[in-house]
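> run fold Protein-glutamate methylesterase/protein-glutamine glutaminase
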Amino acid sequence: MIRVLIVDDSALMRGLLTEILSTAPDIKVVGTAQDPYVARERIKALDPDVLTLDVEMPRMDGLTFLRNLMRLRPMPVVMVSSLTEEGAEVTLQALELGAVDFVCKPKGNSAGEMGIYAEDLIEKVRLAATVKPRARVGAPAPQPLTHRQPSVGAGMPSAQLLAIGASTGGTEAIKEVLLRLPPDAPGVVIAQHIPPGFSAAFARRMHQQTGLNVKEAEDGDRIRRGHAYIAPGDRHLRIKREGSYYVCQLDTSEPVNRHRPSVDVLFWSVAEVAGPKAAAALLTGMGADGADGLKRLRELGAYTIAQDEATSVVWGMPGEAVKRGAAIEILPLLAIADALLKDLETRYP
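> ok
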């Protein structure tokens, strides 16, 4: 039985989350709290397995509470976020501080929409219960880069492609890979399972925190060295070829593996247009999205990596890729960027 404590200043949200989670036979809501001060006492008294945490609360905001929690008593946390630009920014900071995942506050009232929301919330709480967070001492916010090192190759058409796919835990994992790429790296295309609005905030943070020019992909974007393109929430990102450029193509075709953007959709397109001129990594995430696409890339001569279990928040997607023989190598997160670059530099000096 997964024991959950709900922390939210809204009595309506506390009631809704309690009602949803109580429908799951393996989840028990052991208590609720209207602010972090009450939550602190109830964590001590009730010893929950998972916390759901509102971002905006009186007396102490969710981020301050989360920072203290991960330092003093690390535990799995699922953030409950508002569908606003500010809510997206704060949620990404929460993931940086150690939150396992997030759900947006429900925006629809229909039975169908609430049913999908309930499934998502229950699935993420179950997943969070399997994660063992580590204590974060200090957890300083990363310092934005004030400039990017000039490079002869940056901005030129990218002759090779780096493709990355991720889901749960992926925002931080992707950052660790991008941080380790040089400013003239081959063009990077990314599919991260993320809602609309949050992808733009994620792209801005990656642009500020890494040495690459990172943007939310737009239809028709030409892929250049030193640039990274993140699939927008609720859009598939495919890559096509136009002359000397690889080009981004967005669409709203049906979700694949329940996701749009789908990692498989991105990987399949990269396999078809770039083949051996690509290197790809499938990072932490729940489910199997990307495993078939990574296998297709390997079959067509691309270099493929699955993140290892020890450094993954969830070894679902990369683990499935390993089972299917899709990965040439299984590597810890901090070794992936160097391996991707080394492969392309060796084969295309």
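The radius of gyration is 20 Å.
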